Structures are given as C-alpha cells and as structure tokens.
Amino acid sequence: SNKFSITTPSGKFFLKCQSDKGSPNTFFRETKIADFLKLKGVNVPRIIKLKNGEYGCSLYGRHWILFEFIFGKHFTGIGDELQSASEEFAKLTKVLENYTEQEPKKNNQLFIDDLQTLLDLANQSNTIKNYVSKNLHEHYDFVSNALSKSYNDRNQITKKWSFMHTEFHPMNLLMHDEKVLAILDFEDINWSPILESLGFNAYKLIREMMTNPEVRKHEIISSSLINCWISGWRKSFPKSNWGPEDLGKGARYRVLCIIRLILNNSLKLGNTEYLYDLEKQIYSLYEIEKIFWKK
Question: Which ranges constitute the DSSP H helices of 222-270?
C-alpha cells in the first residue's frame, strides 16, 4: 500500500491507498479492526468516514482510506518508551481476544518444514552468494542449528493462538513524552501464535534501542530490556509465565519463517525481489541469541 500525508483547509490527514487489483475486503478489513479498537479505547487513529457513512472508497483504480493525522515521533526507546510500548501491546492483545471474524486472516507464512532442504540448495547457489557478503556456508551450521531447535520448540510456540499485531515495530508506533500516542497498520493484525508475535515484536523494538552503543553494551550482559517488555505484558496477562528464553524461541521461529519465505521465493519461484533481506535475517538470528539467551 501507499501512504500520504495531506493538508486541506479543514486539517491534516493520513491517506492510505492500494491498487484495486487486490481484494477490497482485505484492504477495508483494516477499517473494521481500527473502528473496533477505537471503540474499545485503544490508542489508534480515527478513520474519517465518507458522507454516506462508508469507511473508504474505490476510485481511479485504487482503494482509499483516510485517517486523522496524529503528530508524534516514531519509537526510539528513550526513557520509558519500551515500558509504555509493552503495556500497550498487551492491552491491544487483550482487547483483540474479543475481536472475531468469520474467516480469520491467518498468518500463512509461518512455515519451516522445508527450510532445511532450501538451506541445502542455497548453500550451493551462485545466486544466493551474490546477496550474502560472506558465503552462506559460513552461516550454514548456525542457521541449521537454530532450525533444529525451532523444530523441537514448535509445539510450544504454536500452542496458543490469538489475533495479534504481527508488526509492532518502531515505525508502527507514534510516541509522545515517552508514551504510546498511537498504534498504526492494522492490516498486520492476523490470527497468529501468541508467543511468536510476543517474542518477535520484543526483538524488533529492543534491536532499535540497541543501535545505541551504550544500550547494546549493557543489554548484552543483562536482561533489563526484555524483562521490561515482559513486565508490561504481565500487567494485562498476570498468569503468563513466559520468560526471556521462551520469547526468544518465538522470535527465532518467526525469523526462520522469513528466511524460508525468501529462499522459497528465489530458489523455487525464481523471484529474487527479497534476497536483499536475507543477510539481515541471518544476522537477526545471531542477535536473538544475544538478547534472549545470556551465556
């Protein structure tokens, strides 16, 4: 989808559009979720309805939705931002327990069964070598070992499902005074394993914070950030007994699913569009080991 900031005499707005080649039901699903969340008191942008009461329209070969514009800065992790983000993510997940769909949109990319075969093919592929600065075989054993662990952890990771915001990352959080002002992008709310989303979203936010060398140095030897994330989660789910390593299993599983998607698209379908992201995802596995498992 494409997103635009627009200003009119009546105010400033956020316009989102997508080619009408995609399903209108899929695109406008976001408006239903946003409206549901707004009514439940979740910090989300208000949808500007058309005069006929509709939440959006299809014109000029595109689908359109208009949101109120919210002034804020994206998440960086300063001060109490992580605590606020974790509490809001937990509240959002709690509210989504009451959200229903006749045919829930399932995250159908959570698949690793054939990843070992794809890794073996990739290890011999000249195409893959062009996209990984080090030859893939230098990472092969580490990635294969991570995959073996995820095979063993899969039952735990996929045991509990719910509607989850699967991309609760820095660019989808608007902050003000170290508090979450608004959560964005409800197209990323899917029926997914709770532990996978909880761990992966924690990783995305903590990784952003660890771009600060001092924060990174401290977090490598402690677990303060991941424990902060867990404490915020437990305010809405006090009976949750998941710890850092459990969330690490969820994060690792999600990254392996992304690697599998990239390799399948390039090696089986001939689509190299996402190969640029392969090396980053491999290094994500190394980072997850550092963040969630303290030696």
Answer: 224-236, 244-263
